[in-house]
Amino acid sequence: MDTTSSCEGFSLFLLFLQLIILPLVSASTDTINSTQRISDGETLVSSGGTFELGFFSPGNSTNRYVGIWYMNLTGTIIVWVANREVPITNTTGVFLTVTEPGILVLINDNNNRTIWSSNTSRTVQNPIAQLLDSGNLVLRDASDDRPENFLWQSFDYPTDTILPGMRIGWNFVTGLEVYLRSWRNNDDPAPGEFRYHLDPTGYPQILLERGSVPQNRVGPWNGIQFSGTMDAREDPTYFMSFVMNEKELYYMIPSNNRSPLSRFSLYHNGVMQNLTWVDGRGWVVYVNVPADICDTYGLCGANGICNVGNSPSCGCLDRFVPRDPEGWFRADWTNGCVRRTNLSCGGDVFRRYSGIKLPDVRFSWHNTSMTLQECRAECLRNCSCTAYTQLDISRRSGCLIWYEDLIDIRSVSPNGQDIYIRMASSESDSERMNRKLLIASLTSVIGVVLISLSLFLCILKRKKNDLKMRGGLYDGSQPKESDLPLFDLSTISKATNNFSINNKLGEGGFGPVYKGILEGGQEIAVKRSSKDSMQGRDEFKNEVVFIAKLQHRNLVRLLGCCIQGEESMLIYEYMPNNSLDVILFDETKSMLLDWEKRFHIINGVARGLLYLHQDSRLRIIHRDLKASNVLLDSDMNPKISDFGIARRFVGNETQAKTRRVVGTYGYMAPEYVVDGLFSVKSDVFSFGVLVLEIVWTLYKEDRPLDLVDASLGNLFHFSEVVRSIHVGLLCVQKNPEDRPSMSTVVMMLGNEGVLLPQPKQPGFFTERDVLAAHTATSTNAANSTNEMTITMLEGR
Ligand SMILES: *[C@@H]1O[C@H](CO)[C@@H](O)[C@H](O)[C@H]1NC(C)=O
Ligand SMILES: *[C@@H]1O[C@H](CO)[C@@H](O)[C@H](O)[C@H]1NC(C)=O
Ligand SMILES: *[C@@H]1O[C@H](CO)[C@@H](O)[C@H](O)[C@H]1NC(C)=O
Ligand SMILES: *[C@@H]1O[C@H](CO)[C@@H](O)[C@H](O)[C@H]1NC(C)=O
Ligand SMILES: *[C@@H]1O[C@H](CO)[C@@H](O)[C@H](O)[C@H]1NC(C)=O
Ligand SMILES: *[C@@H]1O[C@H](CO)[C@@H](O)[C@H](O)[C@H]1NC(C)=O
Ligand SMILES: *[C@@H]1O[C@H](CO)[C@@H](O)[C@H](O)[C@H]1NC(C)=O
Ligand SMILES: *[C@@H]1O[C@H](CO)[C@@H](O)[C@H](O)[C@H]1NC(C)=O
Ligand SMILES: *[C@@H]1O[C@H](CO)[C@@H](O)[C@H](O)[C@H]1NC(C)=O
Ligand SMILES: *[C@@H]1O[C@H](CO)[C@@H](O)[C@H](O)[C@H]1NC(C)=O
């Protein structure tokens, strides 16, 4: 038998039927039966004119698909695709029709192949397909339009869009799951990477998964809404029904003829949006997920809590501490948090946490009739129970219990829920009262310290602005030119736009500082020695000798120098974040300096100083450590700079005496100011002042209690602040021998366990009132940003 010719004959016959006998389906039809068909170019239109079904090509693709879209709206929004996995390249002879026993088929007449079909488990007399005004394409018997008797409906097989009336979830009887699967990309509706579904494991919650990895989670149903979503009660137009029984589990946005066009779409890149059509404005986005960083599943690790209002967003739940503090400090939150005090099982207590989105419930247990008291007892009974809460907050009943670490919690106050987390008895409320008292007393102690400190620092600041000391430079060993790269004057001149005023960054210790860009694009800072300053010349040499030989990530790096005729210049790496004082003493800028950054700076300066004192090839005393000599790179890493008056110690030398006191008031140790004695311990004093300044400026912006609570986020920070103040006070003790060495300081800052000695009297106020004793030339007090650190002072 010649199948080809019989095939052709059949096609011709069908074509004949189509053209002559069958009435062409007009745009006003919403239904087809077994004798009608839809070919490319023809469409079905729902009775109200809202939706249209037909052939389309997505994006820039030329492939043809059968799909449903909004009829009259500008811009074609495809809400459903039939043959998403089987594109049609040539629609000649391809049509959609209804056949026995009640299925919709997309047939290619040329080869008699079914491209796509719906399915059914039942048979009816007179099957028809109808596009409803809800956007649902249904197969049913012509004489029975009851939804429960539909043979098939597109709402059970959505692609990437939820329409009102669609039930997202499970039919446990048939085993059918209704879920969204993103398109592969804008041009290809084939199933993509993302799946949005109602996960029934443990207790139902919505998961957005990429492959099998959760990306985003909508919390469990709490009787009113999914935990962590916008409060349904706040938006009367937003109503969601949730059904859970032995037969089915689903949620649905009910449709209603008067409600505006609305859809929920999962895009190929994993973004989800709820959009509503507003005449004159087009599609308006109501909900956008992910809305913020805290929408990232499990961002803060086990027992972490995400709060977009905080910086960084991740914190540990109260009474929990980072499992890996080092990593946590680097914003690597994957290891999460652990209980500060381990559970003992017997005698544990519960602590309530409010305003949260409930954690992942995939490994939870629940009972719909238990009371909260029974729930608590149930949790206590099992040592592996970690937390419990009320299942249904609208009926105030039910019990939900977690047995594992708590994952993916975020702060969603005011719409959040309560959860009761198991704690060791030592964390109980009565213990808490004691702790509260402790914290309160600690706070007041810190308050007193800070108030006296602030008084001191105010004095310091005022004095600093109008009284700067200048002694001679240390008359040490003759600095010899090192093997530092030499730059050409013309190169530097070009890089700085011929030392343009626009390139000037400020005044350094021995002259102006310019920003420049070398030919290769490298940014540099150029310190230019004042021609007429002998002092500048000496400091220049001092700096070259010292800094060229030093290499540490907390010391500013000298790239080279330029000595030509009268000109002598130093070329440094450029520090985009300026010096610490600029940020610290500027009200708006200092707000950006959160505690973690501050602690990072304190630690960096400590390590830089430790290197100078003990680990470098030379043993160096900086003699002028202060906020303006700490530069910050793009990552806010601190770099100690300005070695113009640094002094090298040789052999067993530990202390030296100078007739000429050099440095900056307030940062100078009393024995140095008064007797000209300097040693590593005078640098330690300056470091102590710097630490206290850094903490103080943090304190200044907040109320003292915030220091303990909100601004610092957690007790982990709190203990760091307390430790820093303590170390700062140890460093500014009056007696140099009492002050710790920098190696001790670094250890004390880095280890929580180290027991710190009680600080003795600080050396702020010396017996001889040196501040009053000196008369000085005053410099422009307003120029504090790039202040000249050292100015002439006659005397002593
Ligand atoms: C096409 O398929 C139908 C149903 O399977 C069959 O009855 C018919 O003979 C086929 N036609 C051709 C031309 O192969
Ligand atoms: C299909 O619908 C058309 C138009 O309404 C009608 O004329 C035809 O009889 C129907 N065919 C069947 C098999 O019901
Ligand atoms: C769509 O447009 C057609 C023709 O312009 C119009 O008759 C119909 O009422 C419109 N439908 C809706 C829902 O606006
Ligand atoms: C189609 O291709 C053009 C040019 O490549 C691009 O700008 C446009 O965004 C594409 N449109 C879609 C829907 O992908
Ligand atoms: C589509 O298929 C028909 C019939 O097989 C053929 O005549 C036509 O040339 C094809 N069109 C294209 C664009 O390939
Ligand atoms: C219909 O097809 C889907 C997927 O192709 C399948 O999962 C489902 O079990 C089928 N239903 C019936 C009633 O055959
Ligand atoms: C989208 O949000 C609006 C406003 O909250 C709501 O009325 C509508 O039902 C939502 N639609 C979907 C499909 O979620
Ligand atoms: C707490 O428990 C963990 C794991 O069981 C253990 O590694 C850790 O040492 C315990 N901590 C204390 C302080 O007992
Ligand atoms: C739920 O709790 C109630 C009251 O304690 C109890 O009677 C019932 O058996 C529990 N149901 C399940 C499924 O555990
Ligand atoms: C405690 O709960 C876990 C997890 O549900 C279960 O495996 C274990 O058997 C329970 N233990 C007791 C003593 O009930």
TrEMBL record:
Pfam families: B_lectin, DUF3403, PAN_2, PK_Tyr_Ser-Thr, S_locus_glycop. Residues 29-152 form the Bulb-type lectin domain. It is an enzyme of class 2 (transferase). Residues 499-755 form the Protein kinase domain. It catalyses: L-seryl-[protein] + ATP = O-phospho-L-seryl-[protein] + ADP + H(+); L-threonyl-[protein] + ATP = O-phospho-L-threonyl-[protein] + ADP + H(+). The chain crosses the membrane at residues 437-460. Residues 1-27 form the signal peptide. Residues 345-424 form the Apple domain. CDD domains: B_lectin, PAN_AP_plant, STKc_IRAK. It is found in: Membrane. Its EC number is 2.7.11.1. Keywords: ATP-binding, Disulfide bond, Glycoprotein, Kinase, Membrane, Nucleotide-binding, Serine/threonine-protein kinase, Signal, Transferase, Transmembrane, Transmembrane helix. It comes from the Eukaryota. Gene3D superfamilies: Bulb-type lectin domain (2.90.10.10), Hepatocyte Growth Factor (3.50.4.10), Phosphorylase Kinase, domain 1 (3.30.200.20), Transferase(Phosphotransferase) domain 1 (1.10.510.10). It is a single-pass type I membrane protein. InterPro entries: Bulb-type_lectin_dom (IPR001480), Bulb-type_lectin_dom_sf (IPR036426), Kinase-like_dom_sf (IPR011009), Pan_app (IPR003609), Prot_kinase_dom (IPR000719), S-locus_recpt_kinase_C (IPR021820), S_locus_glycoprot_dom (IPR000858), Ser-Thr/Tyr_kinase_cat_dom (IPR001245). SMART domains: B_lectin, PAN_AP, S_TKc. Belongs to the protein kinase superfamily. Ser/Thr protein kinase family. This is Receptor-like serine/threonine-protein kinase.
